[in-house]
Every structure is written in structure tokens, then in C-alpha cells.
Amino acid sequence: MATSPDLHMRVDTIIADGATVAVEGFETATLAATNASYAMPVALFITVNSTGQITRLHNHWDTQSYFTRLQITPEALAEILTNGPGSGANLVSYPDLRDAYHHNTE
Fold it and tell me: How many other CB atoms are found less than 10 A from the CB of residue 14?
């Protein structure tokens, strides 16, 4: 991804039960727009269909630390991810990123 070309996730634990998968790990990346980086524990909860495709994904991490370490506001990051280099068909749009940030920090 152009916005974080060095994104890496170390997987520490994977637990699966039917179509649900839980992943615990540690993620590092640098945001190209600010050249700031972060390193933090993350958890993913994934639902897959009968062909193994991901149909639902929930990421959990310390949202406030994420934005602080990247030196960027939720609104600015949403703009980069939606309209910046590397965005488009291969990237998810993040119109509600600001709302998610405020919800996770209350």
C-alpha cells in the first residue's frame, strides 16, 4: 500500500472456530505522508465464507496512540486513504474514520 509501504504484522496467536478467526499480533508501519511510524499490539477478528474469503474484519488497537504516533488527525488520514496516492479500487474508503476515532477514545 502506497500510504504505508513498510506495513508489517507479526502474528503471535491465531484461534479459529468455524468461520470466525481471532488473531493477536504486533504491527509496525510508517505513514508516507508524515514519515512517522508506529509499533503497537493489535487484534483482528475475521469472518470467512465457505471459500475462505474474508467477509468481515474488525481491527482493534489503541486508536489515540495510533494517531499521535503518526502525527496526523483522523480527518487528514481519512483524506489520504480515500484520495491520496495508492487509493482507489484496491483501498477501502474510510468516510467514518473520524467517528470511529471519537468512539474509541471516549
Answer: 12
Q: Can you tell me the distance from the alpha carbon of 8 to that of 66, in angstroms, rounded to the nearest whole number?
A: 15
Inform me whether the pLDDT recorded for 26 exceeds 60: yes
Residue 12 contacts by C-beta under 8 Å, 6 or more apart in sequence?
Answer: 24, 25, 26
**What are the two backbone dihedrals, phi and then psi, of residue 100, each rounded to the nearest 5 degrees?**
-65, -40
pTM over 0.85: no
Closest CA to 6 of 33, 37, 29: 29
Classify residue 66 as exposed, middle or buried by CB count within 10 Å of its CB (0-12, 13-18, 19+). Answer: buried
Domain residues of the chain, as ranges?
Answer: 8-104
Class of domain 8-104: alpha beta
Tens digits of residue pLDDT in 58-82: 988 888 888 888 888 888 878 877 7
Mean pLDDT of the residues in the chain: 78
In the numeric block, which cell numbers belong to residue 7?
506495513
